[in-house]
Predict the structure.
Amino acid sequence: MLDDMARHAVTPFSWARAFRHTTLAGLTVLLALAVFSDFIPAPFLSGRRWIAPMWLLGGVLTAFVVVQAYRNGGWKAVVGKQLFNTILAICLGPPLLGLLCWMMLAMGAPWIYTRIAGVDFDQSHVMRTTYVRSARTCKYRLSGGPLEGRFPSHLCIDERLYRRHPEQPVSVRLSGQRSVLGMRIAAVAEAH
């Protein structure tokens, strides 16, 4: 009887685990939006002044990971069997984690805000088409105009638009939504 009850016992709900999984899922969604959407952050969100704060945030996150590993298993858990790999991870952790944080804070979260509270826009700009041979995904690009001095400094375009105007200025219509945090580009079309 007791064995039967133990077999059907339900694991108690853990708010900490639910919060941790929800937070991780939310951050993953923000990162995916930052990587796969055409969003141009506002000038105050992109620029060199963000390098130091994001590097510092990446350093704090790297230290957090190292401290958690040390608390769980001592230096053996931190270093493991490969000292070189550990040193490499500790050195590369801050800039890479800082970049991921910047992408979530300057591109992912503002994309959501702009999608919800942004106003529609449709503007014409003179921009330049370029071809990047070494790029894996975005070989045909549009740069200049409202993207000047921003990161990212280009939009991906289809090959047909590039072939009509190879490596030259072209008048295009950008449409999408705009907010104080940036622009979500929904469509790029040749202006007539």
Observations:
- Helices lie at 2-7, 15-36, 51-79, 83-117, 159-164.
